[in-house]
Amino acid sequence: MQNEEQSSTEVKIFEAAREVFQSKGLEGARMQEIADKAEINKSMLHYYYRSKEKLFEKVYQLSIIKLIPQIAGLLNEDLPLEAKLRNFAIKYLELIKLNPDIPLFVLHEMNKNPGRLKTFMLNEVGKKIQPFLNQIQEEREKGNTVDLPVEQIMVNIISLLIFPFIGRQVLQVILNIDDSEFDQFIEERIKYLPDYLVKITLDKNSL
Amino acid sequence: MQNEEQSSTEVKIFEAAREVFQSKGLEGARMQEIADKAEINKSMLHYYYRSKEKLFEKVYQLSIIKLIPQIAGLLNEDLPLEAKLRNFAIKYLELIKLNPDIPLFVLHEMNKNPGRLKTFMLNEVGKKIQPFLNQIQEEREKGNTVDLPVEQIMVNIISLLIFPFIGRQVLQVILNIDDSEFDQFIEERIKYLPDYLVKITLDKNSL
DNA sequence: GTCTATATAACGATAGAC
DNA sequence: GTCTATCGTTATATAGAC
User: Fold this and answer.
1) For every one of its 207 residues, what pLDDT tens digit does chain B have, with 9 covering 90 and above?
2) Best interface-test mutation with B: which of A128, A173, A186, A192 has the largest number of B CBs within 10 A?
3) Is A207 within a domain?
4) 8 Å CB contact between A189 and A164
5) pTM of the model
6) CB 3.0-4.6 Å disulfide test: which of A62, A113, A144, A145 passes with A140?
7) Which domain holds residue A39?
8) What is the distance in angstroms between the Cα of A5 and the nearest Cα belonging to chain B?
9) Sign of CA dihedral A173, A176, A179, A181
């Protein structure tokens, strides 16, 4: 059998590593900190994962792998653009709310080392996003969308969905709000953003 | 005199450190790499800046200090909201185009260590953004803006302005474009975004 | 599989000659 | 101010007992 049960220790290590790597980055993370958080002996990290680099690689890849198929799936449902876009926004926000640290983590690591997951991401995301871009393009040619290149439309959608999670710390400072107020801010956002994205993308005035 | 001329070596070190810290982060940066990039001997780093930590602190603070007053200034010019917003977008994009690595750098470091520049940023940005929020609020009460809380409006504006610079690597992969195509993408964005931001904020249909 | 003890390597930092 | 050589610390990694 392929999926034997992973030992509790191995899972605890992985979870701890995920937390530490996501908040501190590869070089900022300490193996000792991961061990402490997992409540195991430091040498267990090497027993299960051989090296810091290999442990990181697993965390990094799974951070992405876990999300990509779900996101890509949303983009390939057979729905008219408006419904698909609204659905995408709703589900995407749900997903990212459960994994709020992943975007900044991935962006920072990709920035340090653009090569690492490039081909992998290209296949997983790049190819799956193309049909969605085509669909927007079709609607655009019918005059049903805002008059912008599809790439710009796509980036605008992504920007509005992701940025608040990436910029949390700065936003809390400049808006002068605490953690719980920020969570409220996100809840509010989740409520209006799907409709708002439809509006600014399809250029409707029906908000 | 306070401003004696800084030695060429000292400046070269600082510039190299800025590049390396901004792309690798505090822990990811190597003193040797900074020295190589500055084309000086590694011990010179310590001669001028004593420690890695102190060198980093200077780079980090100046990265922010250099931008904040300029941005804050744009928000406090005495203009009607529409003109101010358009002007802000134009100038902000110019500024960030010259310093495209700063946003991700600052966000990553703030995320690792939210305390480091908190009070500093609060005074420099937080207080200066408030009048702008008030101005949006006034227009909103007159029914001149999109019907969203001012904080949401502000975050939407910031998201659309900054995110492409933060997400460059990922965007290039998923849109399958190279460096020069991405630069074109940004130029295109600079052209339409100021008007587009006015449109989606003031809810005008005059794009 | 888990622990303690220790080896090894990397890196920041300093001493000292020039 | 600048260089070479080297120190000291920290962190990753391994050896070996249990």
Assistant:
1) 445 567 799 999 999 999 999 999 999 999 999 999 999 999 999 999 999 999 999 999 998 888 888 888 888 889 999 999 999 999 999 999 999 999 999 999 999 998 888 777 777 777 888 899 999 999 999 999 999 999 999 999 999 999 999 999 999 998 999 999 999 999 999 999 999 999 999 986 544
2) A173
3) no
4) yes
5) 0.95
6) A145
7) 1-50
8) 34
9) negative
Q: Is the CB of A43 under 7 A from strand D?
A: yes
Cα A114 from chain centroid? 17
For the record, the structure tokens of A142 come out as 């019918």
| Cα-to-chain-centroid distance, residue B152 | 19
The CA distance from A45 to A47, in Å, is: 5
Planar angle of CA A185, A186, A189, nearest 5 degrees: 90
Instruction: Give the residue from B113, B7, B135, B4 showing the smallest Cα distance to B60.
Output: B113
CATH of the domain at A35: 1.10.10.60
Matching residue, tokens 């000792």: A32
Instruction: List the CATH number of the domain containing A92.
Output: 1.10.357.10
For residues B76 and B145, membership in a common domain is answered with: yes
